[in-house]
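Internal tracking record. Fields below are filled automatically when a chain is submitted to the structure queue. Please do not edit lines marked as system-generated. If the sequence contains nonstandard residues, flag them in the REMARKS field before resubmitting.
Queue: standard
Priority: normal
Entity type: single polypeptide chain
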Amino acid sequence: MQRVTNCLIMNNHQVLLLKKPRYGWYAMPGGKMEVGESIQEAVIREVREETGLLLINPKLYSVATMIKESAQSPTNEWMMFTFKADQFSGELVEECSEGELEWIDIAELATIPTAPSDKVIHRAVIELNQQIFASFALDQHDQLINYRVNQS
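SYSTEM-GENERATED OUTPUT FOLLOWS
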């Protein structure tokens, strides 16, 4: 099983996203946890590596299991921990090796290309300000087959 963390970084009715080359989707900055890291340590490290920003007191909002039966173990099951932060320090990097960083207006969030599972998480965390626990089943193209969401 892979463990990943990511973060919705909020600032003045905008969210910082990373446009990744695969599928042309926008994604939350973050990545794989390292051995021995707490989920908070991982999200702070990953966001700093990708954006140059140091998160201040990020809050956990979503814990999701991602199942992709078409993949080989260990990438057929992921645990994704999504944080939200509106406080940070540092300067945004001009270039990121993972893709293009862009501040997106919250009003446009539902219309930009993202992973279908991310749309569910964005709505719960940003629009509804709710903590969720979810399970997503994905096909070989990362499209949703089905999902369950439990709100706290």
